[in-house]
Amino acid sequence: MENNIKLTREYHVHSVYSKNNHGKSTIEEIVAEARRKKLKTISITDHGPGHIMYGIRRKLIPVQRREIDRLKEKYDDIEILMGVEANVVGYDGQIDIKDSEKKYFDFINVGFHDGVKFVDNKSFYNYHVMKRLSWMKKSTKQKMIDLNTNAMIKAIENNDIFIITHPGDKIDVDIDRLAQACEKTNTVMEINAHHPHLSTEEIKIASQYNVKFSLGSDAHRFQDIANVEDSIRRVKESGLDTRRIINID
Ligand SMILES: [Zn+2]
Ligand SMILES: [Zn+2]
After folding, report:
1. Nearest one of 165, 242, 244, 210 to 6, comparing CA atoms
2. Could you tell me the distance, in angstroms and rounded to a whole number, from the CA of residue 199 to the centre of ligand 2?
3. Residue 103 domain flag
4. Which ligand is nearest to the CA of 218?
5. 111 alpha carbon – ligand 2 mean position (Å)
6. Is 249 inside a domain boundary?
7. Who has the most CB within 10 Å: 97, 185, 189, 220?
8. Residue 219: helix, strand or coil by DSSP?
9. Which pLDDT band holds residue 135 (cuts at 50, 70, 90)?
10. Contact assessment for residue 108 and residue 153, using Cβ atoms and an 8 Å cutoff
């Protein structure tokens, strides 16, 4: 097992565009820190607009694009990408990025989150009510897991998704089935440093399939960019072949 894993491409960072002071740093501060840490790629991935508390305002998506394009002209020693951490907002696989908005993004990540405005009552029920009922009966819990897993699989089948962020966090999913779908759709699974998923055990399950993994700091302030110590710990514990991680040297 390789000892010096160094993250060189960061695909999960929040900026001040994640509203209500959720992301603390400006894009300029994030880029400066990424250059200081000698990253090859830095990405800005604010919460999708379906997140009631923290989502980027739709009207600011083109504004963020222009700001990032301006910084790309200013700095030629680092790749700067504009992504988004989209939300599953419908159990039919709907995400909160409209087709007309997709052109602004270099890539789209997706994850489950609390505090999301669901598109219908059924999806709200599946997420919030089933989660609360699931502790009562094993069969209810399994049904909830199946529903969540199906929703995420549809989301990655129906949209061109780069990375699933923190799979298994916020709400339970079947990592085995999800990994099979990631293999089919060529979707990366994140080992998130800020949240405990994928866990060591989940990495072992997912790595049975031909899927790639990313490490993500999920930084909400520039100082935390590329800090993925906890992800690296889980990678080592799981024995994952590091050649399957897309963003390290
Ligand atoms: Zn997240
Ligand atoms: Zn995030």
Report:
1. 242
2. 17
3. yes
4. 2
5. 8
6. no
7. 189
8. strand
9. confident
10. no
